[in-house]
């Protein structure tokens, strides 16, 4: 009860770190794309307090659930996540005093496991690969077991939860249309659950009906019917088609190989001083490949989902990069859509 407190809270001081989610800036990438007839603008979602744009769905799903009673005060949250969403849920759960079990796999970085544990999450590491050589199906199977055994468990289910895309419709994209005083022609976004691209596309199309929405997927991801294959970068791509996906809302898909994403990250760091994660490098690479073919003048909007710190042992480590497969020669032919 604020009125019973001897010290009243100051106006402008946030209630908690959860209230610091969102309101991220837009930045013009003029050094990386120094052309007069095109402007590339990035929303720095990496500035969210948990380190990624996944703070938005974590906050939105939990706060909506607390409001409508589907997440009661004694709820025990469960989710399968190898990184950003898990960290974001752990942060929000800590603030609201909720328990959280995060199901991860052996490919989850030790740093992320440590962060999850420091934030108070219980971490379960599945060990058995699924029939595709990945761990997603094993993780989902474990989540289903857990929700039947943990009392008051609530599965966040990011791949199928409509609140995921709504977090971006009412958050990320609402901010973008307020921040932009001129139309944008293209929206590029890296895809995994498809929550962010669809939530943003739905809002951006209301304001800019002619905008073209370009999905950036990883070579080896099956989201848009690609051939399953080896992928090393977390955050982008998936080994299953998300329930949330509606391909009719995506105008084009650009495939980016892990090596191209690494180069994109390094270009971004060298030219703009932006230290970002793998999927930001993927969208940079996708824009670099596509920009010469786009009608001019044009304005491109994109998202940089997370920071580079948690990728020091991957994207920013030359030995790790040396171990990546080469970019396949037929990559250009993998591009689908019009
Ligand atoms: C770093 C990063 N980039 C991009 C994405 C893709 O976002 P979405 O799941 O909304 O498609 C994710 C999702 O986990 C992510 O962690």
TrEMBL record:
Pfam families: PALP. It comes from the Bacteria. GO terms for molecular function: transferase activity, transferring alkyl or aryl (other than methyl) groups. Residues 20-306 form the Tryptophan synthase beta chain-like PALP domain. Pathway: Siderophore biosynthesis. Catalyzes the synthesis of N-((2S)-2-amino-2-carboxyethyl)-L-glutamate (ACEGA) from O-phospho-L-serine and L-glutamate. Its EC number is 2.5.1.140. It comes from Marinithermofilum abyssi. The lineage of its organism: Bacteria, Bacillati, Bacillota, Bacilli, Bacillales. One of its GO terms (biological process) is cysteine biosynthetic process from serine. Its cofactor is pyridoxal 5'-phosphate. Belongs to the cysteine synthase/cystathionine beta-synthase family. SbnA subfamily. This is N-(2-amino-2-carboxyethyl)-L-glutamate synthase. The keyword Iron does not apply. Transmembrane segments: none annotated. PROSITE patterns: CYS_SYNTHASE. The keyword Transferase applies. CDD domains: CBS_like.
